[in-house]
Specification:
Elements: E1 9-12, E2 15-17, H1 19-26, E3 29-33, E4 37-39, H2 42-45, H3 53-61, H4 63-72, E5 76-77, H5 78-84, E6 89-91, H6 96-108, H7 112-122, H8 132-145
Parallel strand pairs: 1-3, 2-4, 3-6
Antiparallel strand pairs: 4-5
Length: 153
């Protein structure tokens, strides 16, 4: 999703759990219906987050709050997610697609070269400061996690 040149608006209704949460965080703008919940269950099931959740969430809401969200696997309501900053708008369920389209229409009215440039320059911010070697080791670690038996605490 980060490689997509155009902005992605996530319209979340219901639960965004684990991979769904990671997909929501990969969106440029997130609109959630009231009653929606976000939950990171990686720690509960012994799965290493490999799509950027641990990096993105901590950069958006802060390291300590992100640890709490991930380590407790407690669901966050759309309203809390908006307060924490990873949801842009919370709307009534019947208004979800309408609000998402309003945002898309506002984006389309802007200079598209600048929109694309802004998106591409922002896309990989969460890897800033990481050397190529660190990035390679992170990817190798993530890949190796899938081949090992998960431990229980």
């Amino acid at each position: 999703m980060e490689r997509c040149r155009k902005p992605i608006i996530g319209a979340i209704r219901g639960f965004a759990v684990t991979a769904g949460f990671e997909i929501a965080l990969a969106c440029d703008i997130v609109v959630a219906a009231k009653g929606s919940k976000f939950m990171d269950t990686h720690a509960r099931f012994g799965i290493f987050p490999s799509w950027g959740l641990s990096q993105k969430l901590s950069r958006i809401i802060g390291v300590n709050k992100a640890r709490e969200v991930s380590l407790t696997a407690a669901p966050l309501t759309a309203e809390i997610a908006e307060r924490l900053g990873f949801v842009n708008h919370v709307v009534e369920e019947g208004e979800l697609l309408k609000k998402s389209r309003e945002i898309a229409n506002a984006i389309v009215k802007n200079n598209q070269d600048m929109v694309l440039r802004y998106k591409s320059e922002r896309a990989h911010d969460y890897y800033n400061g990481m050397t190529k070697e660190q990035f390679r080791k992170m990817q190798e670690f993530i890949a190796s996690r899938g081949s090992k038996k998960q431990s229980r605490l």
